[in-house]
Amino acid sequence: MNPSGHVDTFARDNLPPRDEWPEFRFTLPELQYPERLNCVTEFVDKWVASGEGDRIAVISPTETWTYAQLAERINRIANVLTRDLGLVPGNRVLLRAPNSAMAIAAYLAVIKAGGVTVATMPLLRAKELAYAVSKAKIELALCDARLSDEMDKTRPLARELQRVVYWNNGELEALMAKPGYEHFTACDTASDDVCLIAFTSGTTGEPKGTMHFQRDMLASCDSYSKYVLQPDRDDRFISSAPLAFTFGLGGHVLFPFRIGAASIQLESAPPDVLLPAIARYNATICFTAPTAYRAMLPKLAEHDISSLRKCVSAGEMLPKATFDAWHKATGLKILDGIGATEMMHIFIGAPESGIRAGSTGKAVPGYEAKVIDDDGRDCPPGTVGYLAVRGPTGCRYLADARQQKYVQHGWNVTGDTYLTDEDGYFWYQARSDDMIISAGYNIAGPEVESALLLHPAVAECGVVGVPDEERGQIVKAYVVLRPGYNGDAATTRTLQDYVKASIAPYKYPRAVEFVTELPKTQTGKLQRFELRRLAAEQVSRKLAS
Predict the structure, then answer these.
(1) Which of 68, 107, 487, 499 could cross-link 508 (Cys pair, CB 3.0–4.6 Å)?
(2) Are 346 and 338 in contact (CB under 8 A)?
(3) 480: phi then psi, degrees, rounded to nearest 5
(4) 88, 95, 239, 346 from 231: Cα distances, Å
(5) Distance between CA atoms of 437 and 318, rounded to whole angstroms?
């Protein structure tokens, strides 16, 4: 490892032991990064330094920023962090905001100052935020004032959090306006200094902090974006994904800024908002989930999306029917792909010229991928096994024993089951754990179970994913009620609302079935695979009727 630029060594101290890291491969010339690197200089500062600061960087409904204007705001926030708030290199900073130009500036300012960004989704509740604060030992948060309610509730739950600074109420803006804050020299960080901790959910429902280096922020751009997406500097990127998702980070920030293109920022972009926004802002590249593409299909005739030239899908399997329908309606082939928070972004995909409908694609240049069996041996084509991948990015969990499960023999084993064909294309089969992937969101069934079990009506419950035409999967809860409660529609709504209020609302069970008992092992352990089998049979009977 290179000499760290961090004064606060928490992140480096809590990396997994080196013998538990995946094997990193830097096989492309573009992936040969210098030992000293602050990625913000590559994403923003270099455009200003080269005389191209007047290029448009960020477009939103209320304002448009050039790269020079973005750079100045980043510098002002970085000065606030270091001069007014006492940040030293290596400190973690929680970021809580909807997608916006200011959120991007804050995100990059933390990194430019040598800090570690911990971005969180606006939908998260205080309990979930407190977990991230405590796990990453976060003392400072930057937050959009409109999201102050849950932030205020977080502080009593996480004693590590010492200060929250808000914007959109004038607090951060006043600090940023100080004379001399328009210039800031990027912290002299190492290319392997951690600059991002992105939290994701695991099979137990306890989030895992995935740690990413300065060089990782560039590696996804110089592999997937360059060789598969192939954007150009006149593109305008639009996405429905939150910045807190690394999928959204790539589509909103990393890929456009790497080439000096523009990013369109919408605070929320469901299909009914995304479609008119594509027309209004002349978006050329769209990042969203298969669910959104399906939802937009019936309304395409109402909007002019002729500016679009590329569409990217990830987060869940892209059904061939959705690919075909979108292609027929628009003439555009959706670029499917699979990535992971642990890997930063997409590592299997195909450029338009190599797309095979229904397949995820091939290993992205710079990555290697294969399918292995239970013993780690390579599976022949046509045999279902576990997906294993390695390349310039890889899993490093924050102080988490689950590192040993994800990384095996130098390979990242993602928890997905695949098979390959004779031509090397990868075909998705299913998740191999208890993760439910619904409309692009990863939802851990046990976390939903934990929320339900806190309600006085619930004696026992089991939560699984159920196939759904619109969302890929939905969350379904099988619930055993306590005596005195009725399994009726009113109780269903009560339980759904209860879950929405206690954890992120998108995790709530869209289907609830009341049962008298749950399938268990002889030792009393819940058999979720039996619930999945039951749910699949119920769906099949419904379709057949």
Answers:
(1) 499
(2) yes
(3) -100, 120
(4) 36, 28, 15, 15
(5) 12
Residue range(s) in the chain whose domain bears CATH number 3.40.50.980? 38-188
Specify the pLDDT at position 433.
67
Parallel, antiparallel, or unpaired: how do β-strands 346-349 and 368-372 relate? unpaired
For the beta carbon of residue 408, count every other beta carbon within 10 angstroms.
15
**Contact call for residues 481 and 487 (beta carbons, < 8 A):** yes
> Which pLDDT value is given to residue 202?
44
Element (H, E) at 132: helix 126-136
Q: Which CATH class is domain 435-544?
A: alpha beta
Tokens 């959204």 correspond to 248
Go through the chain and tell me how many residues it has.
Answer: 545
288-327 pLDDT, tens per residue? 988 889 889 999 999 999 999 999 998 777 888 889 999 9
**With 60 as the cut, is the pLDDT of residue 205 above it?**
no
Residues 370, 111: Cα–Cα separation, whole Å: 34
d(CA 192, CA 326) in angstroms, rounded, equals 41
As a whole number of angstroms, the distance between CA 242 and CA 267 comes to 9
Domain limits, CATH 3.30.300.30, in the chain: 435-544
- The label of the residue with tokens 């973690």 reads 92
Q: Is 359 exposed, middle or buried (0-12, 13-18, 19+ CB in 10 A)?
A: buried
Report the share of the chain in percent with pLDDT over 90.
Answer: 82
Rounded-to-integer distance, Cα 173 and Cα 329, Å: 45
> Which CATH number describes the domain made up of 214-433?
3.40.50.12780
Distance CA 110, CA 117 (A): 6
- Could you tell me the sign of the dihedral formed by the alpha carbons of 229, 235, 237, 238, in that order? negative
Amino acid in the structure at residue 234:
D
d(CA 248, CA 261): 16
Q: In this structure, what is the dihedral angle of CA atoms 381, 415, 238, 501, given to the nearest 10 degrees?
A: 150
CATH class of 38-188: alpha beta
- Spell out the residues 6+ positions from residue 342 whose beta carbon is closer than 8 angstroms to its own: 200, 210, 394, 395, 397, 406, 412, 414
Radius of gyration of the chain (CA): 23
pLDDT for 446 equals 76
